[in-house]
Amino acid sequence: xxxxxxxxxVPEKIEIRNLSKVFPGRPRPVVAVDNVSLSVPAGQxxxxxxxxxxxxxxxxxxxAGLEEQTSGQLEVVHQDQSKRVNxxxxxxxxxxxxxxxxxxxxxxxRMRGVEKKTYEAVVQxxxxxxxLTHFADAYPYQLSGGMKQRVSIARAFANDPEILLxxxxxxxxxxxxxxxxxxxxxxxxxxxxxxxLFITHSIDEALVLSDRVIxxxxxxxxxxxxxxxxxxxxxxxxxxxxxxxFGQLAYHVWELLREEVMxxxxxxxxxxxS
Amino acid sequence: MxxxxxxxxxxxxxxxxxxxxxxxxxxxxxxxxxxxxxxxSLFSPILLLVLWEIIVDVHLLDRRFFPAPxxxxxxxxxxxxxxxxxxxxxxxxxxVLVGLVMGTVPGLLLGAAMGLSAPVRAFFKPMxxxxxxxxxxxxxxxxxxxxxxxxxxxxxxxxxxxVFLVLINTMAxxxxxxxxxxxxxxxxxxxxxxxxxxxAIPGAMPSIFTGFHISVNVCLLIIVTVEFVxxxxxxxxxxxxxxxxxxxxxxxxGLVTTAxxxxxxxxxxxxxxxxxxxxKPEPR
Lengths: 274, 284
Hints:
The complex is a heterodimer.
Chain A: H1 2-8, E1 12-23, E2 30-41, E3 45-49, H2 56-64, E4 71-76, E5 86-89, H3 101-105, H4 107-111, H5 116-129, H6 145-158, E6 163-167, H7 175-192, E7 195-200, H8 203-209, E8 212-216, E9 223-228, H9 237-241, H10 244-273
Parallel strand pairs in A: 3-7, 3-8, 5-6, 6-7
Antiparallel strand pairs in A: 1-2, 1-4, 8-9
Chain B: H1 4-28, H2 32-57, H3 69-81, H4 84-116, H5 118-131, H6 140-147, H7 151-175, H8 179-187, H9 192-230, H10 235-244, H11 248-276
């Protein structure tokens, strides 16, 4: 019933209008995000790709409430006030080394005062979903990089936020672990269909995961292109990558992105020369 | 050779698990080499004592300064039987423990406050910076003047030695918590108290523990010195008295007892570390 309602009326979950972020810096201020407008409907998986240093992480941190924009508007619809509106999955190691896997995953639930009986079942479910049942009481130092990032994903999903914000969560992983985690993410996302804003610099990753790819320009970051990704779900990473349509779309995105990567290199050369 | 690439993909979590299991094995198991090292560590002090005894027996060492281990053991027995040693040990321990608590609690609270709040830090930092470098033994006469010759002056001396060490290490520990954990706390909506309890204190705990560890050692040093000059009981008093009465065996008993207390403190600290820092295995 709800799915039907969603088809007829899809409310915008995240509405970003003319958003800019300027960091005070020397010798001159640095414009990280320049006049970005973007709206994300509820339940959509959006990937943002762009060259390094294009301000995509800053954009995500503003949406997460970890940074304040310099100008422009940000509106996020927060329906259920008893829950957090967003949870972030960070690029670097972000799970608390002093908590067991179980305590890390229950963190968000504990912070908002969910009763132990209630959250234990939720946590157990997500521990199983990310394949860490035998490591529920292990500490992070006993886990590999891939396992730590699984904990981070489980922590965000278990918190049951309305929006998931992911900042290159798989960037530090090796190729094989990356594919496994992408598939896990696809599977869990298919069950929950949360609104996702996912930052990456990998075109393949963006196309495999998302419904829509936003290409950002090199410094300062603006929206360059907005591309629909309509491959059917559920998706399998390598099966999808083997489709000719996938290759064509990836090439199209790369053409857009290549200009920006080249420009980013020129900018870098110019600033280091001056 | 049946598709190594494909099996590598499916094996990845298994490899994860193996890596973790290996870590555990390395933590708990002892190799043959380690056992030999343990045996050697036990053997070397015994050898030293035997040599000492022999050298004194053949008059190569002056027994007025280096009494034979056997005569030290005899004196040790006498002091145990007369309960004198037990009373001294008990009094010293009580002074150390009370002083430790009196120094650790305020050090922890003020250190955490200084770590969390820049204004609090700016206010207290000059005082800490000025007072910390004063040798703690130099303040002893002043403490005895203020607190008299009773037990309070002993507690205060120990507490002053401890408070700065705990404070500085707690503050540094809180300040040095990585930004990412603060971001996570904020993103998951931790309030001030939750932030303090789940991030600031556990995140600073390794540093706090280091401060506490040094404090325990400093405590023993301070209490013995304090008991030299202003006490009528305690291990320090025992050592000082035996120097004044030229009772060298008793002096050695005092030294050995002090060393033994230090050893016990080390065991206690190791046990405490396993309880409060189970997530940070000791570097080998």
